[in-house]
Specification:
single chain, 51% helix, alpha+beta, Arc Repressor Mutant, subunit A, 53 residues
Length: 53
């Protein structure tokens, strides 16, 4: 999971992540929602996520 190496445990800005990962904001939001539904990530606030584990 490339996201794991980029965010070092937490994601603070979706905009920065989309630039780094070369994907659209909507694509990243879909992936983050899927990971939250699977219990692999936790949403901490608006645009902030943390890897569970």
């Amino acid at each position: 999971m490339l996201l794991k190496y980029y965010c070092y445990g937490s994601l603070k800005s979706i905009e920065e992540a989309t630039n780094y990962l070369h994907c659209s904001r909507r694509q990243l939001q879909r992936i983050l929602k899927k990971l939250c539904d699977e219990g692999k990530m936790i949403k901490e606030g608006k645009g902030k996520y943390k890897i569970k584990g």
